[in-house]
Amino acid sequence: MCTxxxxxxxxxxxxxxxxxxxxLLNYVGCAECNKRDFVLxxxxxxxxxxxxxxxxxxxxCTNCHHVVARHEYTFSVVDDYQEYTMLCMLCGKAEDLxxxxxxxxxxxxxxx
Length: 112
Known about the structure:
Radius of gyration: 17 Å
Shape: elongated
CATH architecture: Sandwich
Number of helices: 0
Largest sheet: 5 strands, antiparallel
Strand content: 35-45%
Order of helices and strands: EEEEE
CATH topology: Immunoglobulin-like
């Protein structure tokens, strides 16, 4: 992973968790070849471990294949919620929690 290729390391992305793709606004260009182009996704793997889905891949420079960052995305169901996480030097860090119920109990107004 290369700190010279990104504007900010692990930017806070709130609840935006990317299963695929790249956050190009944070990409300043390749520190190896000094070109700013798209980044490729390689070495993508998907595995399931204890009910948790884990997707990992590398962001690499289109021109010289320099590794810009390693991306990790996880998904799991805990109780009545779907949990998503993302950790990547380029795309950032994020967490999201979504209810699997029709009405999210966290957003219900108290009756009294």
